[in-house]
Amino acid sequence: MGKVLLSAILALSFSTSLSQAQSAWTGGDDLPTNPLACDATAPTPTAKPYDGGVPTNAPDRKGKTITVVDVPKLVGIGYFNATSKGIADAAKEMGTMNAKTDGPSKANIDDQITLIDNYITSGVDGILFAANDPVAIAPVLKKALAAGINVVGYDANSTPDARQWFVNQAEFNGIAKSMVDAMAAEVGEEGSFAIVTSTFTTPNQARWISEMAAYQAKCHPKMKWLETVEAQEDNILSFNQANTLINKYGDELKGIFGMTSVATPAAADAVTQANKCGSVAVVGLATPNAMKPYVSSGCVKSVVLWNPVDLGYAAAYVMRAVADGDLKGGATSVKAGKLGELSVINGSEILLGAPFVFTKDNINDFDF
Amino acid sequence: MAMTDLDIPPVRPSRAVQRPGAIQRLMSDYGQEIVVLLAIVALFAFVTMINPRFISANNLTTIFAGNAYIAVAAIGMSMVIITGNIDVSVGALIGVLATISGTLAVAGYPVWVAWFAPVLIGMAINGLIGVLVAYARIPSIVVTLGALSILRGGLISATGGTWISDLPPAFMVAQKKLFGLPVPLVAMVVLTLLAAAWMRYSAFGRSLYALGGNPEAAVATGIPAERRIVAVFIIHGFFAGLATILFATQLQVIQSTVPPNLELTIITAAVIGGVSILGGSGTVIGSTLAAILFATIGSALIFTNVSAYWLRAVIGLLILATVLADMFRRSRRI
Questions:
Q1: What gap in Å lies between CA B279 and CA B256, rounded to an integer?
Q2: How many domains does chain A have?
Q3: Cα dist. A84→A11, A72, A171, A350, B47 in Å?
Q4: Could you tell me which residue ranges the Periplasmic binding protein domain spans (chain A) (predicted)?
Q5: Which of A257, A294, B3, B83 pairs as cysteine with A195 (C-beta 3.0–4.6 A)?
Q6: How crowded is residue A250: how many other Cβ atoms within 10 Å of its Cβ?
Q7: What does the alpha-carbon distance between residue B114 and residue B307 come to, in Å, rounded to a whole number?
C-alpha cells in the first residue's frame, strides 16, 4: 500500500494552494501601489520607524571575525551564484568574515527552514537569507534572533520583525517603471502585451506586476494588458506558455514581459522560433548570461535587473555593520564598501540603488 | 488495461476465454487510454468552439511537441512501474545528461556524440540502479531517492550553476523538422508505437507484466527476474537519454537545473495513462496520451482564460481518480 500513499502524495503535490489574490492584473498582489513619476523625478522618502527584529543577548561582535551562512532561495542558478560571489568578495575585502553559501537545491521553503534550523543548532554569528516564503520562514528566523544570531535578508524579504535588516535590490516601483518604459519604447503607447511569470503568489513577481499595472495606468494609459500566465521556474513550460500566447493573440500581441531569469530567455526563444523577432518584443527580468544569445541576435533589446553581485556585496557589509552595532534602528544610511553610502528606506530596509537595463552595448561586460 | 493470464489467479477462468465482443475487448485492454483520448478530443472540441485559433497549426505544434520529452521519458518510466518498481530520480538524470550533452556540443565534439553519449551514460547509471534494486534487493524508491540527491547535488557542484549557451545550430535537433513535422513530435509517436508493440507482442515485454503482476508466478514460469529488472532500468535509461536530446536541444540555453518536479510529472503521465502504480498493467500509449493531455489542458486554460492554478488541481484530481479506479478494478477481480 506504500505506493498508494505515494500516489496520494503525488496528487497532493499538484493540488497546492488554490487561493489567489485578485488585483488589477492577474499575478499581482493586493498590497497598495506607489507608482513613480513618469519622468525621472526621484521620490521623496517617507519617514518610518524601525520595524525590524532585535537579537536576544547577542554577544559583542565588534571588530571580531564572524561566521556567516548565506541561505539563498536555492543554489545552482546564475542569479544566486552571483549574490554569493558578492558576499564572498565582500568577506575577502573585509577580512573579518567567514562566509559560506548553503541553500536548498530547489526553491522549497521546507528545505530552507530545515537548513536554517541546522545552522542555528551548529552555531553561527550571522544568517543571510533570501526567503522562499515571507511568512513561513519567519518562525525559524525569530528562533535565530532569540539565539543571539544577527539576521539580514536580501533579494526576498520575510516579515520585518523576523529579521533585523533587509537589503532591497531595487524598489518594486523602480523596476516596474524601467520595465514598462522599456516596453512602451518598443511596442508604442498603444501596444498590447502579456506577462509570463513564475507563480501568481511568488512575492517579488506579484509585487512587480502590481506596480507595473499602477505605473502603466498612470504613465502609459493606452497600453493594453492581455493576460498573465504562470510557468513555475520551468524553462520548457515557459517556452510552451509563451508560444501559446503567441498562438492565441496572433498579431494583437506586441510584447511579452518575462518576470524571471527562466521565463525571459524561454519567451525570447519562443519569439525567435516563431519568427516573430521585431514584431513581438520581449522585455524582462533576467541574468545577462541567460539573455546574451537573444540580445546579440537583436531579438531582445532590454533586459532589466540590478547587479546581483553588488546585492550580495551590500548584504555582507550590512551584516558586518549590524554585528558591529554600527547599524541600528533610526539610522538613515550605511556604508557598504565600494558602493558607498546606501540609504535606509521603509523603516528597516537598505536600498541598493536604481535598476540596471542591460542592452546590446553593455551586456557583454557582465558574466553571471 | 492490458491483462495477462499470469496476473489472474489460476483457479478462475480468464475473462479472455469468454471471447467478448471487439469493443468490450478494446475497453478491457485499453480502457484508461480511451478515457484519456476522449478527454483530449472533448477538450479540443470545447476550446475550439470558444477560440478557433486553438487548432491553428502553430498551436497544434505547441501542444503535441511541447511535452514530447515528457512523453518519451514516460515510456521508460511506464516499463519500470509495470514491473512493480518506480524511479523518482529521472528528472535529475535528465538534468545531468542535458548538461553533459551541452558541454560536449560546446566543446566541439560532433553533434551526434553530444546527442548519444548521454544516452549511453543514462543507460549505465540506470543499469547501476537496476543492479541495486534486483540483486541487492533494495526497494527501488529508496535507491532512486538516493540517486535523486546524488544526481541533483552532483549537477550543482559540477556546474557551479552556470548555464550553457553558444550551442552550435546543428545541435538543435528539437527545433528541426522531419517530413514537415517537428522532430519532437515524430520522435514521440515513433518511439511510443515501437515500444507499445514490443511491450505487447514480445516475450520480453510480456514478462515485464508478469513480473509486476505476480512476481512469484513469474519466477516459477522461468522468467529470470533479476536480469529483467536490470534490463528494464537500462531501457528506461535509454528513453531518458532520448528525452534528454529533445529537452536539451529545444532552447538556446541549457540550465543547470531541471524543471521542478519533472520526475513527478513523468510518473504522473504514466499513472494517468493507465499504468497501475502497483505494477502489472498499463501501456506506453496511455502515458504518451496523458503527456499530450497535460499539454492540452495547459494550453486550453490559457485559451479559455482559466487560472493556471486549475492545471495543478485538475492533474491532482486525475491522479486520485485514476488510482481509485485502478483499486476498484483490482478489488472486483480478486
A1: 33
A2: 2
A3: 36, 8, 21, 18, 47
A4: 71-325
A5: A257
A6: 10
A7: 39
Domain identity same for A160 and A219: no
Q: Phi and psi of B166, rounded to 5°?
A: 60, 35
Whether residue A176 is found in the same domain as residue A301: yes
How many angstroms away from the CA of A110 is the closest CA of chain B?
Answer: 15
Does a structural domain hold residue A280? yes
Residue B204 identity: F
Any chain A CB within 8 A of the CB of B265?
Answer: no
Q: Using the 8-state DSSP alphabet, how is residue A24 labeled? A: S
Amino acid A279: pLDDT: 94
Q: What is the CATH number of the domain that holds A155?
A: 3.40.50.2300
Residue A249 structural domain? 172-305
* Same domain assignment for residues A348 and A287: no
Across the interface, whether the CB atoms of A239 and B319 are under 8 A apart is answered no
Parallel, antiparallel, or unpaired for β B181-182 and B177-178? antiparallel
pLDDT tens digits, one per residue of A7-17: 666 665 555 43
Residue B10 lies in a domain: no
B259 touches A at CB < 8 Å: yes
Contact A232, B260 (CB under 8 A): yes
Percentage of chain A surpassing pLDDT 90? 62
Question: Does A232 contact B259 at a Cβ distance shorter than 8 Å?
Answer: yes
Spell out which residues of chain B touch residue A235, defining contact as CB-CB under 8 Å: 251, 253, 255, 259
Structure confidence by residue, pLDDT tens digits, A35-72: 888 887 666 666 788 999 999 988 899 989 999 999 99
Task: Look at residue B19 and tell me if it is in a domain.
Answer: no
Check residue B96 and give its pLDDT.
93
Please tell me the total count of domains within chain B: 1
Q: A300 with A176, same domain?
A: yes
- A78 and A202 belong to one structural domain: no
CATH label of the domain that carries residue B321: 1.10.3470
Ranges of residues in chain B whose predicted pLDDT is under 50 = 1-6, 8-13, 16
Task: Show which of residues 123-182 on chain B sit within 8 Å of chain A, judged by CB atoms.
Answer: 141, 152-153, 155-156, 159-163, 165-166, 175
Q: What is the pTM of this model?
A: 0.78
Q: Are residues A96 and A198 in the same domain?
A: no
| pLDDT score recorded for residue B9 | 46
How many CB atoms within 10 Å of residue A139? 14
Residues A234 and A262 in one domain: yes
